[in-house]
Amino acid sequence: MESARYNIGGVYRDMNTPTLPLLFLDVRYQSRFKFKRSNDTAPRLARGSMKSPRFTPLPGLWVVEYEETARNTLIQRGQIGGDMPARGRFWIEPDTGRVIISEVIVSDPLMRATIDVAYQNAPDADLFIPVEMRERYENNRARTVTTGTATYSRIRRFGVQVKEDVAPPRH
Question: Has residue 24 got a pLDDT over 90?
Answer without folding.
Answer: yes
